[in-house]
């Protein structure tokens, strides 16, 4: 696929819609497998939390009729904020930071402008929103890289995306690099024991099991990549 988009041009008008549709398809499609990971290495509620969040998010789409990027991502963050566990608030605040991607430094006025059109962020703005999401998750969850949480997938994805933006890569190339970094890191969480969340209670038993939150983050970034290149998100590695 060829594209002339640079990192400071807005992503396509339908990016928010395609991204959130991809999150529903990939994370929703993997809910059973994600729940299974949490049953093996945690307390087993993650699959239910994922399904509840996506159900609420789908209801928000019905009632809100989102049109802009911010509105599409807002349906998702509001869905997660309606869920319990540790992951509900953390994914909720993460998506809230992503929703703000196109607001820019000008705050309210940019937000109003964005509401006039599709208001898609640029690739560079999306990368910084992902970084803000990581910072928020770490601020409230207090997990470091290596604690076997979603942070393990977020951190290398943010680095890969920023490097690709820096290098002038196209959105699909840049997001593919971020997706690969997140998938590789999520898979590598199988080698570590959890230090945060309920999975930490089972300690060594969690070894050999991928962290479900890290896997979910990899799917979310995969959904952003798929929104840029029109492809599918691979979920077969989650087991
Ligand atoms: P709980 O751990 O409360 O049962 P869930 O099962 O809903 O929460 O979600 C589990 C996922 O949440 C984990 O796989 C992990 O990625 C993420 N998680 C748990 N605690 C934290 C934390 N303190 N910081 C970041 N992520 C966390
Ligand atoms: Mg759990």
Model description:
With about 240 residues, the chain is mainly α. The protein has one domain (about 15-230): Serine Threonine Protein Phosphatase 5, Tetratricopeptide repeat (Alpha Horseshoe). The chain has ten helices and no strands. The longest helix is centred in the first third of the chain and has 19 residues, at about 45-65. It is globular and about 50 Å long. The two termini are about 30 Å apart. The model has no long low-confidence stretch (mean pLDDT about 90). Magnesium ion binds near residues 42 and 85.
Tag the structure with descriptive keywords.
binds adenosine-5'-diphosphate; mainly alpha; about 65% helix; binds magnesium ion; Serine Threonine Protein Phosphatase 5, Tetratricopeptide repeat; about 0% strand
Please specify the SSE layout and strand pairing:
Blueprint: H1 15-29, H2 31-41, H3 46-64, H4 69-81, H5 87-99, H6 108-116, H7 123-141, H8 151-166, H9 171-188, H10 212-229
Helix pairs in contact: 1-4, 1-10, 2-3, 2-10, 3-4, 4-5, 5-7, 7-8, 8-9, 8-10, 9-10
Bound molecules: adenosine-5'-diphosphate and magnesium ion (MG).
Summarize this structure briefly.
This protein has 10 helices and no strands. With 239 residues, the protein is mainly alpha-helical. It starts with 14 loop residues before the first helix and ends in a 10-residue tail after the last helix.
């Amino acid at each position: 696929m060829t594209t002339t988009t640079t990192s400071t041009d807005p992503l396509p008008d339908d990016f928010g819609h395609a991204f959130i549709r991809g999150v529903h398809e990939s994370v929703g499609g993997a809910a059973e497998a994600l729940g299974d990971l949490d049953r093996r290495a945690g307390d087993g509620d993650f699959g239910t939390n994922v399904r509840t969040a996506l159900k609420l998010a789908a209801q928000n789409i019905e009632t809100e009729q989102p049109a802009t990027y911010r509105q599409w991502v807002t349906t998702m963050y509001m869905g997660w904020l309606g869920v319990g566990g540790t992951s509900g608030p953390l994914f909720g605040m993460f998506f809230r930071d992503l929703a703000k991607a196109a607001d820019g430094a000008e705050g309210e006025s940019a937000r109003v402008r964005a509401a006039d059109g599709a208001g898609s962020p640029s690739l560079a703005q999306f990368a910084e929103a992902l970084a803000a999401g990581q910072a928020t998750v770490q601020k409230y969850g207090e997990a470091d890289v290596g604690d076997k949480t979603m942070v393990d997938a977020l951190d290398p994805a943010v680095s890969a995306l920023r490097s690709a933006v820096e290098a002038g890569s196209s959105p699909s190339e840049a997001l593919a690099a971020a997706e690969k970094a997140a998938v590789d890191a999520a898979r590598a969480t199988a080698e570590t024991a959890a230090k945060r969340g309920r999975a930490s209670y089972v300690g060594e038993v969690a070894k050999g099991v991928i962290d479900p939150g890290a896997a979910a983050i990899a799917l979310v970034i995969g959904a952003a990549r798929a929104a840029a290149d029109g492809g599918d998100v691979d979920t077969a590695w989650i087991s």
